[in-house]
Design goal:
Layout lengths: L14 H5 L5 H12 L5 H16 L1 H11 L5 H9 L5 H11 L2 H8 L14 H14 L20 H11 L1 H16 L5 E5 L3 E7 L11 E5 L3 E5 L1 H32 L3 H26 L6 E3 L4 E6 L4 H4 L8 E5 L9 E5 L6 H16 L8 E5 L4 E4 L12 H15 L5 E5 L7 H19 L2 E5 L15 E11 L2 E10 L7 H7 L4
Parallel strand pairs: 5-9, 8-12, 8-13, 10-11, 11-12
Antiparallel strand pairs: 1-2, 2-4, 3-4, 6-7, 6-9, 13-14
Helix pairs in contact: 2-12, 3-12, 4-7, 4-12, 5-12, 6-8, 9-11
């Protein structure tokens, strides 16, 4: 449930939901990518971590940058539309608006040691010139469509300006023509009009027909009037219709040429978009760290996994403030006298799964470069995280819940190594008790002997906790509860030692089983 929940298939309740404070679509996509592809090289992790740390420490810079990012459109997608010739005029206006913010972004980030924009400073003037060209070319109120004109600004083409002048001043020409004809004929009620069927016309009432000049050509007879055309009016009509057609054709060509020319800037726009996305994610994760009291982790290649007062990053946002109970963890690799495996026992509903998941999420957060929900974390880089959590079947493949569980466990055991983290929750519960118990114990023993991965293994098979006597790197822990008569209170504290029973009857009672 890193980027969406299993049940609802929605973002709410996922890790992405808990840590996403990005301001741009580009940043949101990049953060999702980081979560799905954590880093495994210490140097790369530290580069991100140091950049986030700088944003945490320089809050004014962070807030300044965030306020600019809020005003930037998705120029990553816009660059794709440019490259495949599908960008419309509104896309260019969005691109212009966003690129106008580039000088502000460069100014806001220039003093940062880990400056996400340092690689694009060299062509800022070139981009500024292109941004001005968009401004001089595309009208601010341009429509989305490009087939009907109204896209190109005045001054781009003298020929286009001539056509537009002809169209824009057509109304004035008609008013002047009407006034002139009234004066020449002496018909004060003479009107000049236009409709789509008959085009331009001069309308004279029947009472004034005897004053109509011989140069008027009858066009249409109405009940109380006649409509005429003259050679001059006909020529104007032809000019206007021709100008409308030629103007639209020329605008389309000018726009297409400009769009083709803009392809030269696609790679630079994409690089700018990548820098904006990175700045967005880094400042966002810094904001999350500050707001949620996260800690900067220590990352190395020691093989250690030590957490002090770790918290579940999602649940602590959903629960009321202060309700979440934090817990410690200490696992180490390549050591014969320290804990490498933990068997976790305790009742259902007491927080076993939550404890295991929170530590997996803490490790993952640390390896995307983020700060983490804990008072302290030391993490030797993990190469893979394997989880076998929850019940599911796949009826389409003819696989029962237990078969899915065994297949997933097999995959983990085949692909894990000593640098991996295994999260095994209640393995073996889907079959007969002794079968399940034998499998659970065999899996633990195989892990300890062959793989030596850091492992959290929760179980209700209390009998297998005794194998800690023959595996020195295995430790028993349990989730604490308090009982008073038949009432049970979950403490959500992870404590040393095995728990002797599961309190299943008490949990059934909590569910009001009759």
């Amino acid at each position: 449930e890193l980027v969406e929940t299993l049940r609802e298939k929605g973002k709410y309740g996922s890790l992405l939901w808990a840590i996403d404070k990005t301001k741009t679509n580009m940043g949101a996509r990049l953060l999702r990518s980081w979560i799905c592809q954590p880093l495994k090289k210490v140097d790369n992790i530290l580069k991100r971590q140091n950049a986030i740390t700088e944003f945490v420490e320089k809050s004014e810079k962070r807030h300044e940058l965030i306020s600019i990012l809020e005003k930037i459109y998705d120029i990553q997608r816009l660059s794709t539309r440019l490259s495949n010739n599908s960008a419309n005029p509104k896309d260019f206006l969005s691109l212009k608006s966003s690129l106008y913010k580039l000088p502000e972004l460069l100014e806001a980030s220039k003093d940062l040691e880990f400056n996400p924009f340092k690689n694009i400073v060299e062509y800022k003037d070139e981009i500024a010139d292109y941004t001005e060209l968009i401004d001089k070319t595309i009208k601010d109120d341009a429509p989305i469509t490009i087939k009907e004109g109204g896209v190109i600004k005045e001054g781009v083409s003298g020929e286009l300006d001539y056509y537009k002048d002809l169209l824009d001043n057509g109304e004035k020409w008609l008013r002047d023509f009407e006034e002139r004809e009234r004066n020449l004929t002496g018909i004060r009620t003479l009107k000049v009009g236009y409709n789509r069927v008959f085009g331009y016309f001069i309308e004279v009432t029947n009472s004034n027909r005897n004053q109509v000049p011989n140069t008027y050509i009858r066009k249409q007879t109405l009940t109380g009037s006649e409509r005429y055309i003259t050679e001059e009016l006909k020529k104007h009509e032809d000019d206007v219709l021709s100008a409308r057609y030629k103007s639209t054709e020329l605008e389309y060509k000018l726009y297409s040429d400009f769009r083709e020319y803009s392809k030269e800037f696609v790679s630079k726009i994409r690089e700018i978009a990548d820098c904006i996305a990175q700045a967005d994610v880094l400042s966002s994760l810094a904001e999350v760290a500050v707001e949620n009291n996260f800690t900067k982790p220590e990352i190395d290649e020691s093989g250690d996994f030590i957490v002090k007062n770790g918290r579940h990053p999602v649940l602590e946002k959903i629960l009321p403030l202060g309700d979440y109970v934090s817990n410690d963890l200490e696992l180490k690799s390549n050591s014969t006298d320290s804990t490498q495996f933990m068997i976790l026992t305790g009742p259902n509903m007491a927080g076993k799964s939550t404890y295991m998941r929170q530590n997996a999420l803490i490790a993952l957060l640390a390896q995307i470069g983020s700060w983490v929900p804990a008072d302290y974390l030391k993490l030797g880089v993990i190469d893979k995280i394997f989880t076998r959590v929850g019940a599911s079947d796949d009826l389409t493949l003819g696989q029962s819940t237990f078969m899915v569980e065994m297949a997933e466990t097999n995959y983990a055991l085949r692909h894990a190594d000593e640098n991996s983290l295994l999260i095994f929750d209640e393995i073996g519960r889907g079959t007969a008790t002794f079968d399940g118990m034998a499998l659970a114990q065999a899996i633990l023993e195989y892990d300890a002997a062959k793989i030596k991965a850091k492992t959290l293994f929760s179980t209700h098979y209390h009998e297998i906790t005794s194998i800690s006597e023959k595996i020195p790197t295995l430790k028993n822990i349990h989730v604490g509860v308090s009982t008073n008569d038949d009432k049970i209170t979950f403490l959500y504290r992870v404590e040393d030692g095995a728990m002797g029973k599961s309190y299943g009857i008490n949990v059934a009672s909590l569910a009001h089983l009759p």
